Known about the structure:
Layout: H1 10-18, H2 22-29, H3 33-41, H4 48-60, H5 78-121, H6 137-151, H7 158-184, H8 196-209
Amino acid sequence: MPRRPAPDSWLSHLCAYFGLRAYDMAHYLGVDAGQLSRLASGRRPTGPAVQEALAPFVKCMPAMAPTSGPLALAPPAAAALEARLDYCRHHARRVRRALRPLEAQAQAAARWSAALPAFRAALPTDPGAEPDSVAAWPAWHTWFRHRWLDRRPGTLDPDQSAAYHLLRLRAEALETEAAALQALLPPAAGEGEPTDDVVLGFVRANAMRR
């Protein structure tokens, strides 16, 4: 089997550009492994027959092979895409369901933070030190209410926030992938065509105008 051309040889670039293996090129050129290796390294001059065979390849190849270019792809097989689409949609729904309790907590915390100044303003001034709950019940109750407001979280804690973002990012990634997969699939039969109800409604509307 022909040895692979050196990675920086012109023949290596040519093979990579056209997606060929070294033995493919050797077979086409009609040379053996040793000859191909010497051609690639420049230790053997290319004869007229080899030059003539290589000329169309060299002519179609730029001086420096681009790192990217147009891709020649057949329409993808629908079954594999549909299976992945079902997976993405199913798991995106599952992750969104897991997000709901955290979203509800975060929304409640945001509402609480927005209303907290009004709650504080409605209370008498904070007495500071804890009053005696028996001798000065109203003052103690005021003191307690200020502390009760302080204990109420105004945001999700860091662990909950991390859980929220991890779930959100996963859901968004699955939804983005699902949208890309859907775009690769052909339209479903009848998609975009008017339904019987739509057609009947159109006919009735036209009849009423007459």
